[in-house]
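step=encode ok
step=design start
structure_in=
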């Protein structure tokens, strides 16, 4: 039997976030606060042959707790002497500290990148909105329930014989190898709880008329047990659906309503007419792509918003 060919796309583990615009207490969102279909928002119609939707419970929006002395991540003082509760609070703060450190490191790496001089993300020109819309998108990203979908396509190769006529009129025969897709399956990762760690800049402080904002999404796991259960669910899915000589496997990470990029308008003046996708395409047709890109970058400041979702898997979900 031929050797298996695996193609996996797994979201980077690096986290994101900046901003001093954080409040002081974590906020929990019940799934009832978010419009869901069968308990979860899907990026495509749910199929009957898939497993039931994941049993989401709550998503917690993390906000650092600041003490009077300015310590960023102190263990909160609880109004009761419950040892298990105190240990849980300390565990949460340790997770929060590691997650935010990861987010800040990833954001620093993103900010070190230089701007592209050859092209512009079409979303920058297609979505030019005010600062209120920018903040509403951040809120949607923070409240969105994350999904990881495993997808697998099995296939094999078959040899086909075909007859054809060459340029001299002679009949000839040739063989060609053709891929034949067979079994296909998808399944959503099951988890128990999720925390949101999103850091974002204040667009008004960028010092420009417009801010081009790039949204980045990442995920990680609360502890080694959760990560091990994730690997187990993935390996079980691959094992139970490996039904041919080859397969392609991919992992799709989605957030409902997630947008990759937008431009935030920070002035009361009208948006320049040439700041439009049609003008950009016209500039590319007359070989003025680099000039247009330079002009657009000179009018805008680059900002990153990084959303990190930390999941916990408490048992055999």
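sequence_out=
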């Amino acid at each position: 039997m031929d050797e298996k060919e695996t193609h996996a796309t797994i979201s980077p583990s690096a986290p994101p976030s900046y901003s001093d615009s954080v409040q002081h207490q974590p906020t929990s969102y019940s799934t009832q606060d978010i419009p869901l279909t069968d308990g979860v928002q899907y990026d495509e119609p749910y199929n009957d042959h898939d497993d039931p939707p994941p049993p989401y419970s709550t998503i917690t929006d993390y906000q650092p707790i600041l003490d009077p002395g300015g310590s960023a991540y102190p263990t909160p003082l609880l109004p009761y002497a419950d040892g298990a509760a105190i240990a849980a609070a300390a565990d949460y703060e340790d997770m929060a500290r590691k997650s935010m450190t990861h987010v800040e490191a990833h954001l620093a790496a993103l900010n070190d990148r230089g701007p592209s001089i050859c092209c512009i993300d079409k979303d920058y020109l297609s979505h030019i909105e005010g600062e209120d819309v920018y903040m509403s998108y951040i809120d949607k990203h923070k409240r969105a329930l994350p999904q990881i979908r495993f997808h697998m396509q099995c296939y094999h190769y078959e040899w086909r014989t075909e007859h054809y006529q060459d340029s001299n009129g002679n009949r000839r025969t040739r063989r060609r190898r053709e891929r034949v897709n067979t079994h296909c399956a998808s399944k959503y990762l099951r988890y128990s709880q999720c925390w949101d760690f999103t850091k974002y800049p204040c667009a008004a402080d960028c010092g420009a008329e417009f801010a081009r904002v790039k949204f980045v999404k990442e995920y990680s796991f609360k502890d080694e047990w959760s990560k091990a259960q994730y690997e187990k669910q993935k390996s079980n899915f691959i094992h139970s659906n490996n039904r041919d000589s080859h397969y392609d496997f991919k992992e799709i990470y989605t957030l409902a309503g997630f947008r990759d990029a937008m431009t935030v308008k920070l002035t009361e003046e009208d948006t320049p007419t040439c700041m439009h996708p049609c003008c950009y395409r016209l500039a590319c047709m007359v070989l003025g792509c680099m000039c247009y890109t330079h002009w657009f970058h000179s009018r805008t400041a680059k900002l990153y918003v990084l959303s990190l979702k930390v999941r916990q898997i408490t048992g055999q979900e």
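step=design ok
step=annotate ok -> The chain is about 25% helix and 30% strand.
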